Amino acid sequence: SEYNSTVLLLTDRSGAVSAMVQNTRTIGVVEGDGETDNLSMIHVPYDAEIENYQQVLTSGYGGIYPQGGREFNLFQDIHAANVVFRSAMPLWQVPMDVYKQMSVTLAELQVKVSPYGKIGRYLFEQMVDFNEERGDDLSWPHGETWGLGDQGVIAVLMEEAEKTSIYDEIEAPCFDLTDGHYIYEKGNRKIRVYHTLDSRLTLEDFFCKLRLHYPTQES
Length: 219
Hints:
The chain is α+β, with helices and mostly antiparallel strands and 219 residues long. The chain is built from six helices and eleven strands. It has helices spanning 78-86, 96-99, 106-112, 117-133, 151-158, 199-213, and strands at residues 17-21, 27-32, 39-42, 56-57, 92-93, 103-105, 145-147, 167-171, 174-175, 182-183, 190-194. Strand 9 (174-175) and strand 10 (182-183) form a beta hairpin. Helix 5 crosses helix 6 (199-213). The protein is globular and about 55 Å long. The relative contact order is 0.16.
């Protein structure tokens, strides 16, 4: 109703999010056990080199700077986000207006993804089916245009370390528990906040690798 909402905690088993280990590029899923405040990273290769204190990245957790506001990942568990932002953990943030730079259209995916192997067809059909399922909802998705939010993590990891012009370092804010706006507390450690992603580099790299590894019969 107007005055009620349903909250899914990040520690809930059904509240898992995709993530990547920074230095090894290992991809997995971070989930809770539903009983404690502990989080685990699952679905990683058995031979992955995972060690204590490695930095794990995920996209989202925060609206547009400087005011902030509602954002999908943030509202899974604002309390957990505040714990992370107030911790000493090294943190790179890709806010909502920045990860929205990773945009594609269904027509683009039909040309650049669908023809290349079973995986390409599957990925494209998943997007089309979801659009048709939610066709009566004008708020989201936005017609035939999609913002690939999780690709923001890939984008920042692909950049050269010397490319420091695409982010700022600011004192970490925390989040208001009602609407998610930023609260700036003095003395917090600095975090890296991205303002620019190279969507061409990231998406074209994906399209090219898909085409190289899954050529069409005509190729």
